[in-house]
Amino acid sequence: MTDRLDPFYPVVDCAAWVRRLVGAGARLIQLRIKQKPEETLRSEIREALVLCRAAGATLVVNDYWELAIDEGADFLHLGQEDLDGADIKAIRAAGIRLGVSTHDHAELDRALSVDPHHVALGPIWPTILKQMPFAPQGPERIGEWKRLIGDRPLVAIGGLTPERARLCLQAGADIVAVVNDVLGAPDPEERAREWIAATRSPAPAA
């Protein structure tokens, strides 16, 4: 595994999805599970890590920093609320690279205060994933965020399709995250391959 992360970044809620998407060629996957017993969470994280390592892929564990440390994860993603209870020193001591979600300048300032490995910005377009208190950022915000975070990878998320993902990459994003457009597709593996073709090939000049 290198420190250069793949631009295609599906977000899934179980190890079974990890298995399917690494089989389709995904090399960077976030495991985001909500409201499950700790034994289930631990088992899912452990299985997802085994699957990703066998495929040469990178797993990002969402939220559960203590389990990420226990299971030897390399990457962790925290939302702004997750930062409240997280032990950043313990995460650093474990050698885990941290990503943080941001939606406005105040959240970006807070994210940068913990020296994250990468920063996520969203929603770029409206999303049906969850109720968002923030208006869509639009792709024009991506260039501004990229200038502010420096060399850190920038993740764009929210309402993306392969075509919109290309626009985000052209605007300065390094990584494009997706949930519904892949997981909700009639053939998720084929849709994942469309994303891979759109994001790993050179983008046309803007």
Question: Tally of extended strands?
Answer: 8
Mean pLDDT metric: 94
Helix content: 40-55%
CATH architecture: Alpha-Beta Barrel
Would you summarize the structure shown here?
Helices cover 45% and strands 17% of the residues. With 206 residues, the chain is an alpha/beta fold.
Topology of helices and strands:
Elements: E1 8-12, H1 15-24, E2 28-31, H2 38-55, E3 58-62, H3 65-70, E4 75-78, H4 80-85, H5 88-93, E5 97-102, H6 105-113, E6 118-121, H7 140-149, E7 154-156, H8 162-171, E8 175-178, H9 180-183, H10 188-200
Parallel strand pairs: 1-2, 1-8, 2-3, 3-4, 4-5, 5-6, 6-7, 7-8
Helix pairs in contact: 1-2, 1-10, 8-10
Would you give an account of this structure?
This protein is of the alpha/beta class and 206 residues long. The chain has a single domain, classed as Alpha-Beta Barrel (TIM Barrel), CATH 3.20.20. It has helices spanning 15-24, 38-55, 65-70, 80-85, 88-93, 105-113, 140-149, 162-171, 180-183, 188-200, and strands spanning 8-12, 28-31, 58-62, 75-78, 97-102, 118-121, 154-156, 175-178. It has an eight-stranded parallel β-barrel with strand order 1-2-3-4-5-6-7-8, surrounded by six helices. Strand 5 (97-102), helix 6 and strand 6 form a beta-alpha-beta unit. Helix 1 (15-24) crosses helix 10 and helix 8 runs parallel beside helix 10 (188-200). The two termini are 31 Å apart.
Which short descriptors sum up this protein?
single chain; 206 residues; alpha/beta; TIM Barrel; eight-stranded parallel beta barrel; 8 strands; 45% helix; globular
